[in-house]
TrEMBL record:
One of its GO terms (molecular function) is phosphatidylglycerophosphatase activity. It comes from Alkalibacillus haloalkaliphilus. SUPFAM superfamilies: HAD-like. Signal peptide: none annotated. This is Haloacid dehalogenase. GO terms for cellular component: cytoplasm. NCBIfam families: HAD-SF-IA-v1, HAD-SF-IIIA, YqeG_hyp_ppase.
Length: 171
């Protein structure tokens, strides 16, 4: 059952997720989390590196949607200047928002990667929807109020995986 929390891939930062990296895995669409995945949870705007990352993906024809459980205000202010499709108040790990993003992309399950920093929302949600999952190391070690409890649970899941020898990276 805990296997639903295990990501397919693990990277240090989204910047490692290049068009070549994705094409190699047959991925044509990316559903990415915002807080602590793209920028720190309390940083309102994209950094120049993240702007360039989006531009590169789009140039290579990769579909991108920003999907966050955070408020419309937060997610719109971040996404609109970048001209990137977004879904706020997504209620990850529930499947509805993933389904909506997938329908808009018009891609198969195996052609989509869900990218995020949390096992309990991003990875669990992506896995349950049958999509590829890529876990990233959180941009900063602090979290918004509602994420702190999730992190406690997450640490226990990591410990379990570590004991079972299922972790292939150091956290
Ligand atoms: Mg996050």
């Amino acid at each position: 059952m805990l296997k639903k929390f295990l990501p397919n891939e693990h990277v240090e930062t989204v910047l490692e997720i290049t068009p070549i990296y994705l094409k190699d895995k047959g991925i044509k669409g990316v559903i990415t989390d915002l807080d602590n995945t793209l920028v720190a949870w309390d940083q309102p705007e994209a950094t120049p590196e993240i702007k360039e990352w989006f531009e590169t993906l789009e140039q290579e024809g990769i579909h991108v949607t920003i999907m966050s459980n955070n408020s419309e205000d937060r997610v719109a202010k971040f996404s609109e200047p970048l001209d990137i499709t977004f879904i706020s108040k997504a209620r990850k790990p529930l499947g509805k928002a993933f389904q909506k993003a997938q329908e808009e992309m018009g891609l198969r399950d195996d052609e989509i990667a869900v990218v995020g920093d949390q096992l309990l929302t991003d990875v669990l949600g992506g896995n349950r929807s049958g999509l590829n999952t890529i876990l990233v190391v959180p941009v900063v070690q602090t979290d918004g109020f509602f994420t702190r409890f999730n992190r406690m649970v997450e640490r226990r899941i990591f410990n379990y995986f570590r004991k079972k020898g299922m972790l292939h990276w150091e956290d």
